[in-house]
Amino acid sequence: MSNVSNENSTGQAMKRMVIGIAVLVVLTALLYFVAGEGFYPWAKAIHVIAVISWMAGMLYLPRLFVYHADAEKGSVQSETFKVMERRLLRGIINPAMIVTWVFGLWMAWKIFHFEGGWLHAKIALVLVLSGLHGYLAAAVRKFAEDKNEKPARHWRIVNEIPTLLMIVIVILVIVKPF
Q1: Which of 58, 98, 121, 178 qualifies as a FRET site for 34, CA 20 to 30 Å off?
Q2: Is 158 exposed, middle or buried (0-12, 13-18, 19+ CB in 10 A)?
């Protein structure tokens, strides 16, 4: 893929992401004003939907890396993985993470008043998950430049981290052990 078409694709993806976020903000504001006190269940539903989307991407992206690491650089297969990884990151994972954080922080503030050990632990683990998100985003760039040096085994191990974090986070939210 040439640099010109790559830049054009990047610009289009950014434009779509900004439009999508703007639409979400407008719809959320409308919902907030229409629902009033009944906004919380909507916020929780949107948060859960965003978390599911974020986790789906965070589980799938390292799996793509497993196969991409074994593909020959410059091959059709490698170039296909680059497109899949970029689109997954920009079209699903990044927006889902943003929505997760926005609605999660709103609920932590408005509903839970940032109180509770379980909430503090959850936020800390979501920060770890966000750090992993950043690591995966950097890996997408390295793969795009054919500079990945990590073997498929590394990505198989990384693929387990979001699952472990998700399990602990869900237990914290549902059980609230402390």
Answers
A1: 98
A2: buried
